[in-house]
């Protein structure tokens, strides 16, 4: 097998302590990128020089010599980091994000920076200033978003594993559309220090991998308390790989009745229902549960997330870094820089967020949104008194065509209807492949657990993966 | 609820100058989204506390200790416009 | 009779005395090279996150307790959004609806007139001011709130014509904004409030309170209304006040301007005005192109804070004796007048110096007088702080002792003091070296007196005839002859005896 096909676990075994094997792996991947990525467009900053400069003389750590690709919204010292936005072109961070430091400490090689929706605003990777990332299973389709590049490089074997970030489904939805494993950990599980903020109270970094096991290996490395992030939890990190390979007998799984409603694609519904059957066969008990406020989650999200975003994006003004459109006076420079620098979706969200926070609308929108968020969180608290895990769809449809929803923001927003609630409630959730549509597009299954119980997700997802082996199918490229 | 968004005012507040051709489309998009968001109005939230932090974490501090970051020159070197050890901006006219 | 009264509230920004900034580990020290004290956090670089400096909250609570505020059971931070190049994130982390503390007060003692003084007036408190005897009144100024926020950077326009320079050294410096109720009624009262507040902050050792270095800043809100009106007039905010005197003068100017405008039938516009020190007037900032809408919302990057009662008690215990009670003690313990006590306690360094002197068992009133008049004047001329002067409490007490013992006269002491300040020598050494001891030797004095009587037979005769007025002339001559060193009391006695 070509080394680029290896999973993270296999790559680790392949490299071992052998520097030449490490180089063989890296070279194979670079060749694969050059061969495939011009069609997929998963990478925005890819420079083999950066890779060779990281070749340590000694291989040590749990990810020794293993290349990991990074969504372009995590800062890496000395690497241009743009959030796929024109406004950040030329921004060279002077520091490493905490996850990057942890990866380096674990011996990993930072491989390349992945395409994304501009500032993670989108569900299709089409709002990128670098053009859309295409779905490796069908190049006419979207890769999903916003971590579309991270999902597509893993699916197209141009990466061993990648990091993405998830504010309303940005890891899980592209993972689902590209047929890889994507985990959004509990809010506070992984440090946000160095993650360029979108919705600060929702953002979370997580792994996109070829297998559930790889996801656990990568989470082991990146999780944990960080004194630089006030919102990071001081809760010990278990060895997530210890949850793998266990059976699911006696586990209680909840199926929210609100999941199977109008708008859910019949093929997706079929795949998800089939997965439920598999869990039954594996000995789990299935119960219907209710998340009565889930239907409000998209509305809450498009208040809370955009409000935070409008504030987080105020700093892009051309003064200290990134794009600057020179003008005779400061006010004109601000307007021109922001006008040229931001794309349409960024402007849409900045305007919306500015509006919902503005005088006279704050209570009606922002505070109302925060209160509805409480109700959504309480739904999860109640359900998790009865069950260990919730399963359901990730995306209401398989990958859609590029351009299909670009002009209709609301329908684009509604494609996150199943994923947003987990961010609002702060709970961990994973997308794991659960089948294919008739046209050969992947479908994902979402597993949602209690806060800080990623272990339960790994246990259940690995049992399912071992049974169905959907991950063995590969796109032809 | 009625939510006629004054796009010019909001754009000004956000320091975005919108081209006439974008303005109409953006305005319509925002109205549609706000109309959708009005779904929340049917919820009775009079007895509900707002959630701005989802985790029950409190009292996170750092010690009052100086650590030199040493990033100044790096940041200045990559700044769009610097003048010696300063960042430089165009004339600030009043009324900001 | 003026039928309008001013209503004044002050917002004081105090830099809290910490090693590092409020949300990052950068140095707060004044005088660094441009942009030296910076890191990804205070530069507001993408991806960076704030973490609260523990010491900042402790100091803020300390101030809150000293101002009799309620310490909020739940403290949170909010973002105040606006664009300006000195604000690297385009929002300032501040506190909106859950500040560290609220609803306190500060009692000031002032000679400023007030329409409704508190019932109790202080007895015997007399002050010399502008030739009039004025009475100190106690007045309670409400404290609305005291909240934490980060300072912004600095925009420099001097020495550059085609733009401005930005220095972020101050960005993220911890500030406590202390907002008073609109309880102040005159420029003098505003001045006294600021002095009292500064004094408390110095006693608490929470701030350097140095206006020149920006560690203390003040904005004033002023409106005028008809006396006995309940409703407040439209308020005008004055910024760019660089000293307490500037606050006083700007308020006085503004009262006059607003009163004149209202009397002339104009409506006062709600606006921000800047104090122009050169022209001694407030000028309107050009009408705002952008309406302010700060869009405050809870800072998602910081968690809420709730300070345990035990911690608050620990902080309360760390509060030293405050100026107000020290003033009372100076009166009762040392017999100082209220006015003298007020002047001495205003600056902790002076009050400490005073008490150090008293330990040397010298007369407190004498020490107080010598500190307030001569010493203060001399230090002022030399532009040095008492804590930095070459004189110490011990050497100063030495000077007082020489006066008490009659070794030197007050007149000689006035010559000795500047020498002590300039050389750091003790009074004893200076007096000895320069031969400045008072002549108390009866023989030597009689010799001088005899010579004066001989040289001035006229006045001497007058005294003999009972015309005592000439006595002073003769004493003066003796003093002149002895180079001022004769003990005046002894000279008087001996002269009287000889001419009786």
From TrEMBL, chain A:
Q: Which residues form the Amidase domain?
A: 25-457
Would the keyword RNA-binding turn up in this protein's UniProt record? no
Output a single Gene Ontology CC term carried by this record.
Answer: glutamyl-tRNA(Gln) amidotransferase complex
- Active site at 71, 146, 170
Question: Domain of life of the organism in this record?
Answer: Bacteria
Q: Which purpose does this protein serve, as stated in its record?
A: Allows the formation of correctly charged Gln-tRNA(Gln) through the transamidation of misacylated Glu-tRNA(Gln) in organisms which lack glutaminyl-tRNA synthetase. The reaction takes place in the presence of glutamine and ATP through an activated gamma-phospho-Glu-tRNA(Gln).
Assigned protein family: Belongs to the amidase family. GatA subfamily.
Assembly notes:
Heterotrimer of A, B and C subunits.
According to UniProt, the name of this protein is: Glutamyl-tRNA(Gln) amidotransferase subunit A
Q: Which organism is it from?
A: Candidatus Danuiimicrobium aquiferis
What's the source species' lineage?
Answer: Bacteria, Pseudomonadati, Candidatus Omnitrophota, Candidatus Danuiimicrobium
Q: Which gene encodes it?
A: gatA
TrEMBL record, chain B:
Which protein family is named in the record?
A: Belongs to the GatC family.
Q: What Pfam family is a match, any one?
A: GatC
Enzyme type, top EC level:
ligase
Give the matching InterPro entries: Asp/Glu-ADT_sf_sub_c (IPR036113), GatC (IPR003837)
- Name of the encoding gene: gatC
As for what it does, the entry says: Allows the formation of correctly charged Asn-tRNA(Asn) or Gln-tRNA(Gln) through the transamidation of misacylated Asp-tRNA(Asn) or Glu-tRNA(Gln) in organisms which lack either or both of asparaginyl-tRNA or glutaminyl-tRNA synthetases. The reaction takes place in the presence of glutamine and ATP through an activated phospho-Asp-tRNA(Asn) or phospho-Glu-tRNA(Gln).
* EC assignment: 6.3.5.-
Q: Which organism is it from?
A: Candidatus Danuiimicrobium aquiferis
Please give a single GO biological process term from the UniProt record.
Answer: regulation of translational fidelity
Q: Which reaction does it catalyse?
A: L-glutamyl-tRNA(Gln) + L-glutamine + ATP + H2O = L-glutaminyl-tRNA(Gln) + L-glutamate + ADP + phosphate + H(+); L-aspartyl-tRNA(Asn) + L-glutamine + ATP + H2O = L-asparaginyl-tRNA(Asn) + L-glutamate + ADP + phosphate + 2 H(+)
Keyword line:
ATP-binding, Ligase, Nucleotide-binding, Protein biosynthesis, Transferase
GO molecular-function annotation terms? asparaginyl-tRNA synthase (glutamine-hydrolyzing) activity; ATP binding; glutaminyl-tRNA synthase (glutamine-hydrolyzing) activity; transferase activity
Q: Which NCBIfam families match?
A: gatC
Name used for this protein in its record: Aspartyl/glutamyl-tRNA(Asn/Gln) amidotransferase subunit C
Keyword Magnesium present in the record's keywords: the answer is: no
Which proteins does it associate with, and in what oligomeric form?
Answer: Heterotrimer of A, B and C subunits.
From TrEMBL, chain C:
Indicate what this protein is called per its UniProt record: Aspartyl/glutamyl-tRNA(Asn/Gln) amidotransferase subunit B
Q: Name one GO biological process term.
A: glutaminyl-tRNAGln biosynthesis via transamidation
One annotated GO molecular function is: asparaginyl-tRNA synthase (glutamine-hydrolyzing) activity
Identify the species of origin.
Answer: Candidatus Danuiimicrobium aquiferis
Q: What class of enzyme is it?
A: ligase
Q: Any stretches that span the bilayer, and where are they?
A: none
| SMART domains found in the cross-reference section | GatB_Yqey (SM00845)
Q: Which reaction does it catalyse?
A: L-glutamyl-tRNA(Gln) + L-glutamine + ATP + H2O = L-glutaminyl-tRNA(Gln) + L-glutamate + ADP + phosphate + H(+); L-aspartyl-tRNA(Asn) + L-glutamine + ATP + H2O = L-asparaginyl-tRNA(Asn) + L-glutamate + ADP + phosphate + 2 H(+)
């Amino acid at each position: 097998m070509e080394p680029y096909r290896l999973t993270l676990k296999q790559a680790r075994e392949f490299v071992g302590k052998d520097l030449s094997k490490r180089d063989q792996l890296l070279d194979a991947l670079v060749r694969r990128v050059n061969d495939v990525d011009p069609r997929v467009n998963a990478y925005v900053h890819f420079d083999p020089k950066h890779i060779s400069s990281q070749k340590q003389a000694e291989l040590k750590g749990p990810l020794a010599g293993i290349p990991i690709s990074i969504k372009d919204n995590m800062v890496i010292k000395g690497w241009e980091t743009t959030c796929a936005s024109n406004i950040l072109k030329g921004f060279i961070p002077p520091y490493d994000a905490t996850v990057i430091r942890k990866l380096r400490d674990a011996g990993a090689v930072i491989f390349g920076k992945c395409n994304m929706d501009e500032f993670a605003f989108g569900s299709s990777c089409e709002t990128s200033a670098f053009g859309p990332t295409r779905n490796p299973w069908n190049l006419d389709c979207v890769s999903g978003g916003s971590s579309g590049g991270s999902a597509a490089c893993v699916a197209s074997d141009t990466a061993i594993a990648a990091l993405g970030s998830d504010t309303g489904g940005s890891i899980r939805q592209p993972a689902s559309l590209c047929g890889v494993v994507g985990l959004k950990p509990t809010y506070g599980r992984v440090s946000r220090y160095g993650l360029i903020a979108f919705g600060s109270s929702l953002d979370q970094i997580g792994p996109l991998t070829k297998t559930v096991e790889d996801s656990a290996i990568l989470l082991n490395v990146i999780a944990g308390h960080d004194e630089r992030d006030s919102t990071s939890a001081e809760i010990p990190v278990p060895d997530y790989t210890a949850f793998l390979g266990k059976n699911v007998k006696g586990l209680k799984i909840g199926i929210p009745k609100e999941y199977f409603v109008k708008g859910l694609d019949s093929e997706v519904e079929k795949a998800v229902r089939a997965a439920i059957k598999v869990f039954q066969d594996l000995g789990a008990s299935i119960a219907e549960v209710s998340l009565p406020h889930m239907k409000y989650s998209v509305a809450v999200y498009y208040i809370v997330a955009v409000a935070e975003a409008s504030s987080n994006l105020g700093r892009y003004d051309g003064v200290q870094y990134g794009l600057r459109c020179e003008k005779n006076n400061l006010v004109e420079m601000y307007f021109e820089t922001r006008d040229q620098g931001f794309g349409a979706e960024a402007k849409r969200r900045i305007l919306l967020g500015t509006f919902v926070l503005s005088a006279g609308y704050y209570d009606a929108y922002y505070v109302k949104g925060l209160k509805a968020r409480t109700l959504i969180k309480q739904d999860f608290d109640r359900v998790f008194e009865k069950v260990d895990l919730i399963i359901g769809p990730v995306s209401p449809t398989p990958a859609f065509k590029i351009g299909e929803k670009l002009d209709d923001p609301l329908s684009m927003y509604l494609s996150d209807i199943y994923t947003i609630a987990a961010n609002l409630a702060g709970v961990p959730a994973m997308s794991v492949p659960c089948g294919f549509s008739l046209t050969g597009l992947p479908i994902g299954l979402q597993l949602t657990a209690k806060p800080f119980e990623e272990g339960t997700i790994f246990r259940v997802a690995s049992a399912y993966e071992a049974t169905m082996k959907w991950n063995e199918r590969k796109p032809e490229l | 609820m009625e939510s006629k968004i004054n796009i010019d005012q909001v754009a000004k507040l956000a320091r975005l100058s919108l081209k006439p051709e974008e303005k109409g489309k953006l305005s319509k998009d925002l109205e549609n989204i706000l109309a959708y968001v009005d779904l929340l109005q049917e919820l009775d939230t009079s007895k509900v506390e707002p959630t701005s932090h989802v985790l029950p974490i409190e009292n996170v501090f750092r010690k009052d200790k100086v650590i030199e970051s040493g990033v100044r020159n790096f940041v200045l070197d990559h700044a769009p416009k610097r003048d010696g050890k300063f960042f430089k901006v165009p004339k600030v006219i009043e009324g900001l | 009779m003026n039928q309008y009264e001013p209503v004044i509230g002050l917002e004081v920004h105090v830099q809290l005395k910490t090693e590092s900034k409020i949300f990052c580990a950068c140095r707060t020290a004044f005088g660094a090279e441009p942009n030296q004290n910076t890191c990804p956090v205070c530069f507001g670089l993408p991806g960076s996150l704030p973490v609260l400096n523990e010491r900042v909250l402790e100091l803020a609570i300390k101030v809150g307790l000293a101002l009799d505020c309620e310490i909020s059971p739940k403290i949170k931070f909010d973002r105040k959004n606006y664009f300006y190049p000195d604000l690297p994130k385009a929002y300032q982390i501040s506190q909106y609806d859950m500040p560290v503390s609220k609803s306190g007060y500060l009692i000031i003692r002032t000679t400023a007139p007030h329409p409704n003084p508190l019932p109790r007036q202080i007895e015997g408190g007399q002050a010399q001011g502008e030739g009039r005897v004025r009475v100190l009144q106690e007045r309670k100024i409400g404290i609305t709130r005291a909240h934490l926020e980060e300072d912004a950077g600095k925009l420099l326009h001097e020495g550059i014509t085609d733009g401005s320079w930005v220095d972020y050294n101050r960005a993220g410096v911890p500030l406590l904004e202390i907002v008073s109720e609109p309880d102040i009624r005159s420029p003098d009262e505003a001045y006294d409030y600021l002095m009292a507040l500064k004094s408390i902050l110095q006693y608490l050792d929470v701030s350097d309170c140095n206006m020149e270095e920006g560690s203390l800043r003040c904005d004033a809100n002023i409106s005028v209304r008809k006396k006995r009106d309940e409703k407040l007039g439209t308020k005008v905010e004055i910024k760019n006040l660089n000293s307490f005197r500037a606050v006083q003068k700007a308020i006085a100017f503004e009262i006059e301007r607003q009163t004149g405008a209202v009397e002339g039938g104009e409506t006062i516009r709600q606006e921000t005005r800047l104090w122009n020190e050169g022209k001694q007037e407030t000028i309107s900032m050009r009408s705002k192109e952008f309406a302010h809408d700060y869009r405050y919302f809870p800072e998602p990057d910081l968690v809420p804070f709730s300070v345990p009662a035990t911690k608050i008690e620990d902080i309360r215990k760390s509060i030293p004796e405050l100026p107000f009670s020290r003033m009372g003690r100076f009166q009762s313990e040392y017999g100082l007048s209220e006015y003298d006590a007020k002047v001495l306690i205003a600056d902790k360094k002076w009050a400490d110096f005073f008490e150090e002197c008293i330990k040397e068992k010298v007369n407190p009133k004498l020490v107080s007088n010598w500190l307030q008049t001569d010493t203060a004047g001399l230090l002022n001329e030399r532009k040095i702080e008492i804590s930095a002067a070459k004189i110490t409490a011990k050497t100063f007490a030495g000077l007082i002792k020489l006066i008490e013992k009659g070794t030197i006269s007050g007149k000689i002491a006035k010559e000795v003091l500047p020498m002590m300040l300039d050389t750091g020598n003790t009074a004893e050494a200076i007096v000895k070296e320069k031969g400045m001891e008072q002549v108390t030797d009866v023989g030597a004095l009689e010799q001088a007196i005899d010579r004066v009587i001989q040289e001035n037979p006229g006045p001497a005769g007058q005294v003999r005839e009972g015309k005592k007025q000439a006595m002073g002339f003769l004493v003066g001559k003796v003093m002149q002859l002895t180079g001022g060193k004769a003990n005046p009391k002894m000279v008087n006695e001996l002269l009287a005896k000889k001419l009786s």
